[in-house]
Model the fold of this input.
Amino acid sequence: MFNYEKAFLEIKTNCLSGTATGIDAIMDTLSTADLPTTRAVDFFLGLVEHQAGTDRIEYYLFNGTQIQRNYCTLYFARRNDWKPVNKAYKRGLIDAIQAYSR
Done:
């Protein structure tokens, strides 16, 4: 049986660490994540405050898979940081719905 409590704690810890390695681990989980795990990523990603973590999230916004770009867009939109979102939209990496709905 999958241990959600352990998985969610790991996601939270990685977000709070704000390291590039922590963000990489979170983004890796999205490729095979189920709904509860994606909800945890969505919630805990907002805890990233360190510049290294924000920089890594921006990296995934421009270089990640579609699901990774979705969560990165949400991260920046919730921080009211529109510069990377607008740039990704103009490059065609995300659509208008992804870019401008919260």
